[in-house]
Amino acid sequence: MLKNLTFILLLGLTFLTPNLFSQKFSLGIIGGLTSSQISGDGIYGFAQFGGIAGADVNYPFNETWSATFGLQFNQKGARNYQSQSVYSPYRLRVNYVEAPLVLNYHFNKFKFNAGLYLGVKVNQNERNSFGLTEPYREFKSLDIGLQLGVNYEIKENWQLELRFQNSIFPVRDHILNQAFPPALFIVGDWHQKYLNKGQFFTSLSLTLRYEI
User: What confidence tens digit (pLDDT) does each residue in 160-200 have?
Assistant: First the structure.
């Protein structure tokens, strides 16, 4: 079903492209690198790297504001490397097809954007030095979250963008009733209670966009 949904979205984007150009729309191709982590695993830092690639369409309302809708493949996860203090290395990889929708504010060569994204899980892989982790815990099929970004035009038709994503709803339940004791980035008791509901992805992406 996921393959069919992805095919339909891509096919629709392809056939709509000629009409989009005639209505002020512009098409962009993006590619880059994602660094991510997941809450509640006792591991801190954006140590899991993956790729991000896709396409988007941008519609300008005026010289200051525009909206962008995209479709992209994004690799998220978490990682812990073996060291003197870490006996067993750990790696989590979850691949998503995402559809972000953001509102852009234009200032000179910069675009500041904010919006939401919907991610559909493609597959997952979780292992340590002994192989696949046990017990196997399935990630939820959807990841819905907040997306923020800063886009800079480095030359005509070429833009560099730094993106931040954070899940709004848990992407997986905890193995116990709550997360590991807080150590970093806990705003208050309400935040800890929110994190206790499940695991949340946080990611940073650096992308290069070519506008057609």
Answer: 999 999 999 999 998 876 565 554 566 777 877 888 889 99
80-112 pLDDT tens trace? 875 555 566 888 999 999 999 999 999 999 999
Residue 128 CB contacts under 8 Å (≥ 6 apart), including other chains = 88, 89, 90, 91
Residue with tokens 């730094």: 162
CATH (one of 3.30.450.20, 2.60.40.2550, 1.10.3720.10, 2.40.160.20) for 2-211: 2.40.160.20
| DSSP 8-state code for residue 61 | S
Tokens encoding 52: 């991000």
Q: Which residues face 118 on adjacent strands?
A: 99, 144
pTM, to two decimals: 0.83
